[in-house]
From TrEMBL:
Transmembrane segments: none annotated. This is Uncharacterized protein. Gene3D superfamilies: Homeodomain-like. SUPFAM superfamilies: Homeodomain-like (SSF46689). It comes from the Eukaryota. The keyword Manganese does not apply. Keywords: DNA-binding, Nucleus. Residues 13-65, 66-116 form the Myb-like domain. Residues 13-65, 66-120 form the HTH myb-type domain. SMART domains: SANT (SM00717). It is found in: Nucleus.
Length: 203
DNA sequence: AACATTTGCAACCGCGTGCTG
DNA sequence: ACAGCACGCGGTTGCAAATGT
C-alpha cells in the first residue's frame, strides 16, 4: 500500500501520521527498539522520532518488525490448528496466535475472516458432499467444526470463552495427530508467553 | 480496454484490564 | 481507595490488488 499521510508530520498542529508505514519509519522504530526494547510505546514513538501514536508503533512492531515473524503461507497444519483452537476458544485471537510460533493475532484474525469462516460456511451448507478420503486435515477439521453442536457463529459472537461443554478428546480425535496431539492441547493453556517478550522484559 | 465488484490484509478505534503513584 | 496511564485485545474500516463482466 502506498503511504497516504506521510506529509502529516509537516503540519504545525502535530497531527499524528496514520495509514501505511514507510520504510524509513520502520527503520527508525526497529533501531530504537533494538536499543531500548519494546515497552513504553508512547515514549518509543516520541524518542524514535516517529510522528505516530504509541499504539500504532506497538502494532507495527508486533505484526511486522518483531524477530521471527512468519508472513503468509499458512500451512495445512497451522490452518488445522487454528480451526481447532477457534472451536475451543472462540475469537480469542491472541491466545490462538500464542500457540502458533511466529504468527500474530492480527494475521490469524484476518486469515480466519477471509479464508476459514468462508470454508466453514461452505461446509455447513453441504457437509456431505465435501468429504472424500483425499481430503486434507483442514477439510476434515472444517467439517468437524461446521457440523459440531456448537456453531462457529455462536462462539464468535461473545467475547467470553465458549463453554467447554464438548469433549475435548472428541474434538481432537481426528485422523492426523502429528505435532498437535492431545497432550499438547491439555498443556496449552498453561504455557508461558512469547519467549522473545520475556527476553525484552529483562533488558 | 474499461469499468465494477470482490478479496485480502494492514492499520485504526474503542474498550477493558492491570499497574503505579 | 482512587485516578491516570499504558498495554493488550477484538472488531471494524479503508484501500490496493485481483478478478469478473
Amino acid at each position: 500500500m502506498a503511504p497516504k499521510n506521510s506529509e502529516a508530520s509537516t503540519n504545525s498542529k502535530m497531527v499524528m501520521n496514520k495509514g501505511a508505514w514507510t520504510g524509513e519509519e520502520d527503520r527508525k522504530l526497529a533501531e530504537y527498539i533494538e536499543v531500548h526494547g519494546p515497552k513504553r510505546w508512547k515514549t518509543v514513538a516520541m524518542k524514535a522520532g516517529l510522528n505516530r501514536c504509541g499504539k500504532s508503533c506497538r502494532l507495527r512492531w508486533l505484526n511486522y518488525l518483531r524477530p521471527n515473524i512468519k508472513r503468509g503461507n499458512i500451512s495445512d497444519e497451522e490452518e488445522d490448528l487454528i480451526l481447532r483452537l477457534h472451536k475451543l476458544l472462540g475469537n480469542r485471537w491472541s491466545l490462538i496466535a500464542g500457540r502458533l510460533p511466529g504468527r500474530t493475532d492480527n494475521e490469524i484474525k484476518n486469515y480466519w475472516n477471509s479464508h476459514l469462516s468462508k470454508k466453514i460456511n461452505k461446509k455447513e451448507k453441504k457437509p456431505a458432499e465435501c468429504s472424500t478420503p483425499q481430503d486434507s486435515i483442514t477439510e476434515k477439521t472444517c467439517e468437524a467444526v461446521a457440523t459440531g453442536q456448537e456453531t462457529v457463529e455462536e462462539s464468535s459472537k461473545g467475547a467470553a470463552i465458549p463453554e467447554l461443554s464438548f469433549d475435548v478428546n472428541e474434538l481432537f480425535d481426528l485422523s492426523t495427530q502429528g505435532t498437535y496431539d492431545l497432550e499438547w492441547v491439555n498443556k496449552f493453556l498453561e504455557l508461558d508467553e512469547d519467549p522473545w517478550l520475556a527476553v525484552a522484559e529483562d533488558r
